């Protein structure tokens, strides 16, 4: 996870599975780097962002709590 922290990933755990974020599963949301537990989750989120409100809400809460934007 140290390397992920250096990449400024805003979350440590996947919003879908609760598993740790993996380096090969990063994407961007609102200009910030967010992560998932596997590339399949990442790609599904990136492709269907409007159809995945749970993921967006998870990231929005982290952004608000940390006052990132």
Structure description:
The protein is α+β, with helices and mostly antiparallel strands and 69 residues long. Helix content is 41%, strand content 12%. The chain is built from three helices and two strands; from the N terminus they run αββαα. The chain is globular and about 30 Å long. The mean pLDDT is 90.
Spatial strand order of the main sheet: 1-2
Number of strand segments: 2
Alpha carbon gap, first and last residue: 23 Å
Rg on CA atoms, Å? 11 Å
User: What would you call the structural class?
Assistant: alpha+beta
Strand content: 5-15%
Q: Residue-averaged pLDDT, rounded? A: 90
Keywords:
two-stranded antiparallel sheet, 2 strands, 3 helices, about 70 residues, globular, alpha+beta
Write a brief caption for the model.
The protein is an alpha+beta fold. The chain has helices at residues 2-6, 39-47, 53-66; strands at residues 26-29, 32-35.
Topology overview:
Layout: H1 2-6, E1 26-29, E2 32-35, H2 39-47, H3 53-66
């Amino acid at each position: 996870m140290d390397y992920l922290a250096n990449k400024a990933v805003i979350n440590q755990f996947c919003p879908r599975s609760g598993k740790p974020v993996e380096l090969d599963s990063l994407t961007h949301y609102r200009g910030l780097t967010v992560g998932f537990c596997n590339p399949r989750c990442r790609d599904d989120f990136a492709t269907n962002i409007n159809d995945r409100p749970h993921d967006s809400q998870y990231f929005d809460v982290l952004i608000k709590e940390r006052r990132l934007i």
